[in-house]
Specification:
260 residues; mainly beta; globular; 1 helix; 4-stranded antiparallel beta sheet; Jelly Rolls
C-alpha cells in the first residue's frame, strides 16, 4: 500500500464545494483545501469543474463562468485564471489551494441581461489531469477595445473588424498564460448560403505587444495554430489587413492556453 492509499484510509484526501450563481451577478462559490491537514501533504492536485447552466429560452445572452485558483506553498502563491464549463479540469502543485468560481456573463444581444440562476461545483483530488491536446483555457471577455479607443469597449466574437481597423485584447497577467490561439473569418449569417470571403496571406494579423504599440512579434492567423507567449507580453493587436477594395470585415476569436 503506497502513501496516498494509506492516507486515504487515515484521513481526508478529497475536497469539494457547490453552490448557485446568478448570470450577470456578483456571487461566488469558494473552496479552500489545506492538503497538509488531510494527511496527504504537498504535491500535485487536480481541480475539476461542473457547470449546470441550461439555455435560457427567454434571453439570447450565453452564460460565461470563470474560476480563479491560488496555489500556496509556505505562504507564497501563484494564480491561475480559467474559463470553466462541465468537463474543465486543471492541475497544480502546492500545500493548499483556494478556488473562487464566479459569473462573467456579458450583455451581448439586446438590452436585457441574462439573470438566470445556475449550479456550479468543483472537486479537488490528488493526481494530474489527463494528457490532452487542449490545455485549460481562458477566453478574453474584458478590456477589449476597438482601435484602442476606451470609448469603444467591445465583446470579441461580436465585433466585426473593418479594413485597417484592429481590436486590442489585453493579456491577463494573473492567469498563467503560456500560449494563444487566434482565428479569423469573414462572417456569414446563420441560415444563409453565402460563401465566406477567402482570407489571403498576411490579411489577418496578430501583433503581440510589450505594452502600448511596441511590437514583440507578429504572425499571420490565416491558419490557426497555438503560439507560445512570453511572460512579458502585455496585449494582442488583431488587425484586418485586407485590401481596401472590396471591403471585407473580419471576426476574430481568441483562446489563451493556461499552464496546468
Amino acid at each position: 500500500m503506497d502513501r496516498r492509499q494509506l492516507s486515504a484510509l487515515q484521513g481526508k484526501d478529497g475536497w469539494s464545494a457547490a453552490g448557485t450563481l446568478q448570470a450577470s451577478g456578483t456571487g461566488q462559490v469558494k473552496l479552500q483545501a489545506d492538503f497538509s491537514k488531510g494527511g496527504v501533504g504537498s504535491g500535485q492536485y487536480t481541480v475539476q469543474f461542473n457547470v449546470n447552466a441550461p439555455p435560457n429560452p427567454t434571453n439570447p445572452n450565453p452564460i460565461f463562468t470563470e474560476a480563479l485558483l491560488t496555489w500556496i506553498v509556505e505562504g507564497n502563491s501563484v494564480t491561475r485564471h480559467i474559463s470553466i464549463a462541465n468537463g474543465t479540469s486543471i492541475t497544480g502543485s502546492g500545500q493548499a489551494v483556494t478556488v473562487v468560481i464566479y459569473d462573467n456573463t456579458q450583455l451581448l444581444y439586446g438590452s436585457t441581461p441574462n439573470t438566470q440562476d445556475y449550479q456550479v461545483n468543483c472537486q479537488v483530488v490528488p493526481g494530474v489531469r489527463p494528457n490532452t491536446e487542449v490545455a485549460p483555457i481562458l477566453y478574453p471577455l474584458d478590456g477589449i477595445l476597438l482601435n484602442g479607443n476606451p470609448a469603444d469597449p467591445t465583446f470579441l466574437q461580436k465585433q466585426p473588424v473593418g479594413h485597417s481597423d484592429y481590436l486590442y485584447v489585453p493579456i491577463p497577467q494573473d492567469a498563467g498564460i503560456t500560449s494563444v490561439l487566434v482565428t479569423a473569418i469573414s462572417p456569414v449569417v446563420i441560415g444563409t448560403a453565402a460563401t465566406p470571403v477567402s482570407i489571403g496571406d498576411g490579411e489577418a494579423l496578430v501583433i503581440v505587444s510589450l505594452g502600448g504599440v511596441n511590437a514583440m512579434t507578429q504572425y499571420d492567423c490565416k491558419t490557426p495554430f497555438w503560439y507560445p507567449l512570453l511572460a512579458s507580453a502585455q496585449g494582442l493587436y488583431l488587425q484586418n489587413n485586407t485590401p481596401a477594395s472590396p471591403l471585407v470585415n473580419l471576426r476574430f476569436t481568441v483562446a489563451f492556453g493556461i499552464d496546468g
